[in-house]
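Please go through the sequence line and token line underneath and see whether the fold suits the sequence. See right below:
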Amino acid sequence: MLAVDETTRLKPLNENYVSLEVNADNPELVDLNSLLHQKNSRVHCLELYNSSNQSKEIDLKLFLAIKCNLLYNDSLAVLILKKIILGKEQTELLAEALSTARWIQHLSLQECGLTDECCKILCDSLPKAPSVSTLDISGNKITADGALVISNLLKHEAMARGISCWIRSLRGRTVDKKKVLGLSRLTLNNNFITDQGLSYIVESLYDDFWIKAIDMQNCCLTNEGAKLVLSLLDVNRDIAVFDMRHNTGISLWLLASIIKRIAINKKSIPDETGGEWLSNENETIENIPEYEEIIPKSPPGTRGNSRTNISSHLRRTQSCLISQRNQRLGGVPVWQRASAEHLKQVKSVVKA
């Protein structure tokens, strides 16, 4: 790590690129334009952060500098803003730059005070920036209304990708879905999404084959939302991560069922991992107990045990999900179609 001055650090990534970290605690000391102009061909990652405990609003001059470098620095692929307040005016500047930039791949706006209105401004610009593959808007003020805007963005991107694949498949050409640009990971941790907002996002993911990871830790979700996700994973088997930890309204056995379902889906698509589970200092995905450990046994002397009762409940739930899927796919379950064909054969024999 090389300190340029008391507010800026350069971190070499490889022989050609560096990462630039700027502390925005004292914005009057930061000359971002001159820094990026000097390292214009080498800055691959720009991180603007606030080292204090609370988010902070900074001068518009810094956002104008970010906008200019998003437009003209074709080496800048990662933009991270952390604890920097983004009001409507700042978000509009950022969205305007994103709508014309063609090289940003990772966008992170953690704890930036984004409201539903700012979220809409941002999401309206992302369809014009297909190079963005990961979006992290954790720790903001996004509610179910913002989740509806995000679901519309996912639907728009899925439609655009489908059209792109159709065009590429003309004349018998094979299409590699990995080369189709667009979002592949969406991180919404620590927002006020609720089950209503989750239902919007789940609905948009039923026909989406490109989103591989969704992170929704601590988003005010309950068991009802977890059941929606289980229904989704039974149909969409391209999702490799759906992180719903730290939602106190979700029971451990439902969380384990989601993780188990995802593990089964990942085995069916071994070539597409879709990213890793997020972790923090206190917990990783390996710390979550196995399904057998989550379900406790009944006390001695009681009839049966809760393990058997919950397992039978899961089997009934799975049968309901399968019947719903059959109704969506074919209208009539397979066993009903088979019995109808058998009945036709019996009637033909009787008539003969």
Summary: The beta strands are 2-3, 8-12, 18-23, 43-49, 78-82, 106-110, 134-136, 185-187, 213-215, 241-243. Confidence is low (pLDDT under 50) at residues 1-5, 281-311, 331-340. Residues 144-168 form the longest helix (25 residues).
